[in-house]
Amino acid sequence: MQELEAIIGSPDALQHYGVPVSLLALANQDAELAAELLHSPAASLPLMDQALVVAQEDVMARLATCDDEACVKVRAHVACHAQPRCRLRSHLRRGARAKSCLCKEH
Predict the structure, then answer these.
(1) Superfamily of chain region 2-88
(2) Which residues neighbour 98 within 8 Å (Cβ) at sequence distance 6 or greater?
């Protein structure tokens, strides 16, 4: 929530903002969503970006005091990090794309 408050309070509405999302932490909370982000990022990331806009709107509604520069930033994006790694890489041929440890196909 602190990241969203900082984005809302930033004066530059045209800047792009990255909100860090740990895929390991997300996998512990919602394994299905984490797997979807890993396997279909082109489809999932735009939805996550839309969710960030909605989350900013919710945070702004909850904030008691907002200055004149506070606004929802539509150029906020999810920045994924801490991707889970598969411990069973021996089944992959060199240069092949590794599946995440969430794939459950081992």
Answers:
(1) mini-chromosome maintenance (MCM) complex, chain A, domain 1 (3.30.1640.10)
(2) 85, 86, 89, 92
For helices 41-62 and 2-9, what crossing angle results, to 10°? 80
Contacts of 86 (CB under 8 A, 6+ apart): 98, 99, 100, 101, 103, 106
Residue 89 one-letter amino acid:
R
Query: Domains of the chain: which residue ranges?
Result: 2-88
Report pTM. 0.73
pLDDT digits (tens, 9 = 90+) for 4-49: 999 999 999 999 999 999 998 998 899 899 889 888 999 999 999 9
Residue written as token pair 């994006």: 77
Q: What is the residue-averaged pLDDT of the chain?
A: 82
Which residues in 37-87 belong to E strands, given as ranges?
76-81
Which CB contacts under 8 angstroms, 24+ apart, belong to 26-33?
A: 27/84, 27/102, 31/102
